[in-house]
Specification:
Rossmann fold
Length: about 375
């Protein structure tokens, strides 16, 4: 039985991970849960799964009163990382949203525990450091994103990483894939949150609408699989049935397909190298039409900005991520137009004085400075 620690258990990925675990009580035991500030839901989850430890960053005053059993509680800004250090787990699922997930990732790798990674920002901002740490500790990092899980599944033996010619990342295109630039000028938050195929949290849903999410996934794929950026291609695939593809040097293309349901890649990461009986509906191939087309990087500029930042390297991806986090939050609050997001990201990148071969401290400092600078840009 695997002992599982879930960081970000009250978010979309965390909730679905608990659904998977509930379906397989003989395979998994929850030993730790963490949340940012949703103490009520965290307590409900803890009361059901009875982990020995829970952690909450904010709004922690009532958590002990909501628990119906004795449990060790960790609080504070660094609570998730401290939970990783203190909890005896076989696998840590990091589904924290944003740069806040970076240090818990580092904590898991330092401890040498298997990491199921749904936190994009760890790889986007500090991919080289994260990969080096995993190699040093001989620790597995298992991808949870549907696209990277698909690639990972396609790369199981007898195929191998060294035989890759190209990675093809599929993108639904989001709710605005068929909009013109003029139509994008006045889109609302409600429109942007209506993703056509996936059910996700607010931040990642907006990132899907701008295609920044796919840009982040390009950077992740580079670090996960050691493939050059020129050999990572994005295609728009509205049906969201093919989750990604790998082309090999002999011309063969392998694809992983399935209904768009995050519980499949979550379960595969938790159960790897085994496959367990699934809980999602089977894919019906009868009458299924699959379409693919190039993304419009002029209309959705965030994707090109991500490629640009990735190729520059150093602290540029950290700036890309920090600016995007601030701007998406402002858009969700109604303080920014949809098309302003890439404008301010580009300005932040242009103003940045990079550090190459950065340390974690350099990355965190670049993140902090960028957030402050972007907020001032928007106000002015």
């Amino acid at each position: 039985m695997k002992r599982v620690l879930i960081l970000g258990s009250t978010g979309s990925i965390g909730r679905q991970a608990l659904e998977v675990i509930k379906q397989h009580p003989e395979e998994f035991k929850v030993v730790g849960l963490s949340a940012f500030d949703n103490s009520e839901l965290l307590a409900q989850q803890a009361n059901e799964f009875k982990p020995s430890m829970v952690a909450i960053v904010r709004d922690s005053s009532c958590i002990s009163e909501l628990l119906n059993y004795k449990c060790h509680i960790i609080t504070g800004e660094d609570a998730p990382a401290r939970l990783v250090e203190a909890c005896a787990a076989d696998i840590v699922l990091n589904s924290i949203v944003g740069i806040a997930g970076l240090m818990p990732t580092v904590s898991a790798l330092k401890k040498g525990v298997t990491l199921a990674l749904a936190n994009k920002e760890s790889m986007v901002t500090a991919g080289e450091i994260i990969v080096s740490m995993a190699r040093e500790k001989n620790t597995a990092i298992l991808p949870v994103d549907s696209e990277h899980s698909a690639i990972f599944q396609c790369l199981q033996k007898p195929e191998g990483y060294g035989e890759i010619k190209r990675i093809i990342l599929t993108a639904s295109g989001g709710p605005f894939r068929d909009y013109t630039v003029d139509m994008l000028k006045d889109v609302t938050v409600d429109q942007a949150l209506k993703h056509p195929t996936w059910s996700m949290g607010q931040k990642i849903t907006i990132d899907s609408a701008t295609l920044m999410n796919k840009g982040f996934e390009v950077i992740e794929a580079h670090w996960f699989f050691g493939v050059e950026y020129d050999d990572i291609e994005v295609v728009i695939h509205p049906e969201s049935v093919v989750h990604s593809m790998v082309e090999f040097i002999d011309g063969a293309v392998l694809a992983q397909m399935g209904v768009p349901d995050m519980r499949l890649p979550i379960q595969y990461a938790l159960s790897y190298p085994q496959r367990l009986r699934g809980m999602i509906k089977p894919l019906d191939l009868r009458g299924l039409t699959l379409t693919f087309r190039k993304p419009d990087c002029e209309k959705f500029r965030c994707l090109q900005l991500a490629y640009d930042a990735a190729l520059k390297g150093g602290t540029y991806p950290a700036v890309l991520n920090a600016a995007n986090e601030v701007l998406v939050d402002l858009f969700l609050k109604g303080a920014l137009r949809f098309l302003d997001i890439p404008v301010f990201i580009e300005e932040a990148l242009n103003r940045h004085s990079p550090i190459y071969n950065p340390s974690l401290e350099d990355i965190i400092y670049a993140d902090w400075r960028t957030r402050d600078a972007v907020k001032k840009m928007v106000v002015n």
